């Protein structure tokens, strides 16, 4: 028999080979004498999964024994990307598996490429959740993530003739070895119906009689920590028809209809909504939110009740983190369970609820805050609407005592928005019921306090905090940039920075060391070659176009993120046209001084976001012209990376020399891709927005190319309208598009109209001159190799603050009140 902490699965080459072959034979059901790369990947993934499960069991047992306060992280989106490389690195078995595979005639890297991405999220918020889960595991915090197991992840982007087309991402088609279906962990989720009053022991209670029931089935995704045995879990819920679902129909013989209705239940977890900005109050979207909230709350209560009898202990054992407004229904659901099922009474239930919720908002825009039409909520979740009205009644009555009868302010702060359509403001609910409201950068927090949530800040200043975002260095250096990882460890003389990122600062001591410079440049070159090969292969796939061959001596200038007007990919394109125009008008001598550039753009536009889609098309028509202009050659090449996702980012970021972060100041809550570029020694060209302001403090103004209006200047510039002065160069490039220099003249008219004549809300014209200047400064620095390399080293050295380990530690200590609970090796 094994003792509790004995390692069950062995990691020597013979054991690993046997495990892999066993999985080939019995899991993949292929002969161990003949299997291809994909089958080998599947067997490898299952061998790794076995080890994850073992550690996860040990962690579970340890947590159950210690019974610490646990964090429950609720998010509707997680962008996990691939799991194989991250798992073997965090388990500390990467080299062992690579050796075992090579003896079987396979290469680890080749098999890793077989894995598809898990894209259960849109953009920044979703990838942040994934980084934070990994940091929670690494720092030994007792945490569980909850989300939805969408059958269709974020749409696949296909570019046809320069236009974006969307295709479904049926990511589960080839199976998913990283999840464990828990068919016995299911909860019934109720919808619709009516609320009645009932009396129990002379007390009146509300009883919700549902009109529809759906089962939530748990799918567990283990998340291993690095340098620890701790492995936590991301539990994703899938919808299945309930056995109790519409029994009536079966009994009345309406068998076919009943089966069709059962299928409808599954649609709740079928699709991820592909919009990362605006919330539309669609019924299915609300159903998704409640489905995930109800299953998670039932799971949390079940776990609590397994070990505790008295709900007074609940706040000592449970911290609930609301990742943006989408999971805010959790508040009403927990109140409902405590009132109607646990019969605690309003005051006790409310007291508990107020102690356990914390809320983080990821937006600066009021349009992104979830609002639910009262009619919709009342029909889908009648009891919740009553509870929200009761919470609001108490809140408004108290508020009147505090601020008097300031009706405008009372109306603004009320959870219920009056108007032609009455809405429930989920952000107000979240703020009122949470003990802490966090922003995602210092600037964001200031904007919340002075704009978005000003009324609430003035009422409860103590609730408002911020935790600047971070990203995990395990994924964004160790997995994605192994050459840089080895180089950093060599120069710091330790691998300890992988868990303790502050050690990176030690690189500063060698920022002018010529030996390091040589090795640093070599690493960048290796990564540029990798990226260039990808570009060539990817562009060569197209039937009508030739493959794009890029020069490694050129500056790889990257702008990859979701396409949005506020992120200003259009400014980048206008800058590229200006550069092209300048080169065309240069004499031979001047052309020799031009710094060759490869301008890389990648990112998806929301399917219904017309302007964003036009921006993608514009990039393609400009690329077509410039890439085929023999007069330009290697001086300027444009590349669009289609279907940008986590695994593509892992390839692109290490290979970038320069990266662009151009949001109009005051619009990017934080920005996290800039942190990944910084860690990889890539220089930034950026506005003073979001987290960039804090980056400047860490790396120094000399090591970043800044441009554009500051946040406080933006309102005055907008105010000027048509009187705003814009440079002639700006007018010239817009005219080139307008006049059809790149074709599609009519198609781009609305786009040009949006940035001229006082309509330029995102201030492209106002920032254009300083953008071009910053680009020139970047060119100048690039030709001075020694200066550039020093800057690059200083960027990586100063990136420590932007690790999600720091963010998570701050949350744990200041917001959640949880302690590490480390499972012994
Ligand atoms: C999110 C969602 C997700 C669920 C479905 C509907 C919906 C609607 C709106 C939003 C708001 C955008 C959330 C977002 O991704 N914000 C980004 O969060 C990053 C992490 O904090 C931050 O770095 C970015 O600046 C911010 O734009």
Short key terms for the protein model shown above:
single chain; 825 residues; alpha/beta; Rossmann fold; 2 domains; nine-stranded mixed sheet; six-stranded parallel sheet; 33 helices; 24 strands; binds ligand 26V
Account of the 3D structure:
- The chain is an alpha/beta fold and 825 residues long.
- It has two domains: 67-82 and 117-468 and 810-816, Rossmann fold; 473-802, 3-Layer(aba) Sandwich (Rossmann fold), CATH 3.40.50.2000.
- Helices cover 47% and strands 16% of the residues.
- The strands form six sheets. A nine-stranded mixed beta sheet has the order 7-10-11-4-1-12-13-17-18. The protein has a six-stranded parallel beta sheet with strand order 21-20-19-22-23-24, sandwiched between helices. A three-stranded antiparallel beta sheet has the order 14-16-15.
- The longest helix is centred in the N-terminal third of the chain and has 30 residues, at 37-66.
- Bound molecules: ligand 26V.
- Residues 76-77, 122-125, 128, 273, 275-277, 279, 324, 326, 362-363, 368, 440, 469, 668-672, 690 line the site of ligand 26V.
Give the arrangement of secondary structure elements.
Elements: H1 13-27, H2 37-66, E1 70-74, E2 78-81, H3 84-91, H4 94-103, H5 108-112, E3 118-120, H6 124-138, E4 143-148, E5 153-160, E6 163-169, E7 180-191, E8 194-200, E9 203-209, E10 212-224, E11 231-241, H7 247-251, H8 255-266, H9 283-307, H10 314-317, E12 318-323, H11 329-341, H12 346-356, E13 357-360, E14 371-373, H13 374-380, H14 382-403, H15 407-413, E15 416-417, E16 423-425, H16 426-433, E17 436-439, H17 442-452, H18 454-459, E18 464-466, H19 473-479, H20 482-492, H21 514-540, E19 555-560, H22 569-584, H23 588-592, E20 597-602, H24 610-627, E21 636-641, H25 646-652, E22 658-661, H26 673-679, E23 683-686, H27 692-699, E24 705-706, H28 714-720, H29 728-738, H30 749-753, H31 764-783, H32 785-797, H33 804-816
Parallel strand pairs: 1-4, 1-12, 4-11, 12-13, 13-17, 17-18, 19-20, 19-22, 20-21, 22-23, 23-24
Antiparallel strand pairs: 2-3, 5-6, 7-10, 8-9, 10-11, 14-16, 15-16
Helix pairs in contact: 1-2, 1-4, 2-3, 3-19, 6-33, 9-11, 11-12, 11-14, 13-14, 20-21, 22-24, 22-29
The structure holds ligand 26V.
The site of ligand 26V has 25 residues, from helix 6.
């Amino acid at each position: 028999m094994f003792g509790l902490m004995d390692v069950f699965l062995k990691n020597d080459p013979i054991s690993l080979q046997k495990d892999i072959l066993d999985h080939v034979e019995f899991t993949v059901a292929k002969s161990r004498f003949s299997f291809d790369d994909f089958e080998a990947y599947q067997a490898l993934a299952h061998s790794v999964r076995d080890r994850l499960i073992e550690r996860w069991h040990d962690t579970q047992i340890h947590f159950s024994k210690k019974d610490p306060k646990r964090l429950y992280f609720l998010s509707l989106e997680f962008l996990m990307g691939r799991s194989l490389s991250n798992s073997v690195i965090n388990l500390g078995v990467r080299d062992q598996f690579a050796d075992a595979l090579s003896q079987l005639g396979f290469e680890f890297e080749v098999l890793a490429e077989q894995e598809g991405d898990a894209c259960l999220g849109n953009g920044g918020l979703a990838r942040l959740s994934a980084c934070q889960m990994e940091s929670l595991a690494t720092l030994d915090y007792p945490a569980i993530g909850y989300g939805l197991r969408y059958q269709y992840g974020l749409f696949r982007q296909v570019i046809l003739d320069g236009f974006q087309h969307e295709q479904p991402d049926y990511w589960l088609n080839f199976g998913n070895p990283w999840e464990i279906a828990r068919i016995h962990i299911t909860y019934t989720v109720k919808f619709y119906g009516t609320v009645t009053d009932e009396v129990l022991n002379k007390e009146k209670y509300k009883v919700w009689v549902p009109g529809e029931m759906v089962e939530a089935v748990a799918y567990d995704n283990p998340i291993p920590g690095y340098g620890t045995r701790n492995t936590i879990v991301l539990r994703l819920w899938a919808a299945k028809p309930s056995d109790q679902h519409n029994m009536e129909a079966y009994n009345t013989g309406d068998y076919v209809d009943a089966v069709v209705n059962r299928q409808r239940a599954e649609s709740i977890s079928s699709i991820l909504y592909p919009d990362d900005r605006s919330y539309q109050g669609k019924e299915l979207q609300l159903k998704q939110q409640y489905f995930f909230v109800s299953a998670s709350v039932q799971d949390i209560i079940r776990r609590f009740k397994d070990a505790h009898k008295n709900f007074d202990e609940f706040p000592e054992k449970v911290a609930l983190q609301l990742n943006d407004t989408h999971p805010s229904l959790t508040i009403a659901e927990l109140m409902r369970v405590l009132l109607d099922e646990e019969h605690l009474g309003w005051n006790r239930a409310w007291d508990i609820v107020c102690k356990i919720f914390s809320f983080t908002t990821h937006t600066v825009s009021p349009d992104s805050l979830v609002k639910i039409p009262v009619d919709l909520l009342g029909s889908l979740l009648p009891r919740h609407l009553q509870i929200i009205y009761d919470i609001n009644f108490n809140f408004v009555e108290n508020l009147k005592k505090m601020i008097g009868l300031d009706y405008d302010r009372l109306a603004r702060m009320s959870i219920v928005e009056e108007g032609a359509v009455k809405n429930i403001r989920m952000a107000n609910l979240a703020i009122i019921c949470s003990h802490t409201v966090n922003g995602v950068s210092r600037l964001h927090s200031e904007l919340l306090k002075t704009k978005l949530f000003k009324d609430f800040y003035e009422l409860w200043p103590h609730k408002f905090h911020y935790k600047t975002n971070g990203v995990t260095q395990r994924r964004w250096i160790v997995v994605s940039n192994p050459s840089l990882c080895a180089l950093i460890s060599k120069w710091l003389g330790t691998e300890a920075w992988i868990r303790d990122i502050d050690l990176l600062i030690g690189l500063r001591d060698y920022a002018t060391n010529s030996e390091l410079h040589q090795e640093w440049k070599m690493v960048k070159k290796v990564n540029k070659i990798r990226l260039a090969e990808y570009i060539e292969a990817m562009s060569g796939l197209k039937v009508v176009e030739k493959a794009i061959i890029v020069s490694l001596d050129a500056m790889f200038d990257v702008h990859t993120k979701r396409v949005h007007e506020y992120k200003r990919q259009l400014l980048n394109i206008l800058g590229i046209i200006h550069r092209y125009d300048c080169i065309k008008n240069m004499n031979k001598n001047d052309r020799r001084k031009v710094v060759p550039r490869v301008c890389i753009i990648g990112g998806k536009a929301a399917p219904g976001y017309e302007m964003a889609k036009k921006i993608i098309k514009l990039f393609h028509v400009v690329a077509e012209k410039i890439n085929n202009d023999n007069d330009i050659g290697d001086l300027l090449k444009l590349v669009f990376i289609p279907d940008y996702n986590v695994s593509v980012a892992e390839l692109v970021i290490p290979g970038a020399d320069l990266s662009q972060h151009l949001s109009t100041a005051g619009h990017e809550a934080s920005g996290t891709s800039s942190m990944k570029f910084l860690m990889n020694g890539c220089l930034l060209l950026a506005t003073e927005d979001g987290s960039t302001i804090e980056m400047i403090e860490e790396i120094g103004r000399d090591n970043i190319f800044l441009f554009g209006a500051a946040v406080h200047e933006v309102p005055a510039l907008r105010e000027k309208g048509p009187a705003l002065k814009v440079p002639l160069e700006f007018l010239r490039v817009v005219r080139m598009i307008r006049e059809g220099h790149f074709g599609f003249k009519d198609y781009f008219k609305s786009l040009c109209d949006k940035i001229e004549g006082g309509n330029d809300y995102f201030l492209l014209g106002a920032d254009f001159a300083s953008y071009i200047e910053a680009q020139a400064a970047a060119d100048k620095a690039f030709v001075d190799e020694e200066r550039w390399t020093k800057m690059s080293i200083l960027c990586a050295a100063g990136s420590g603050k932007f690790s999600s380990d720091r963010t998570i530690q701050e949350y744990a200590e200041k917001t959640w009140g949880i302690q590490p609970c480390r499972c012994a090796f």
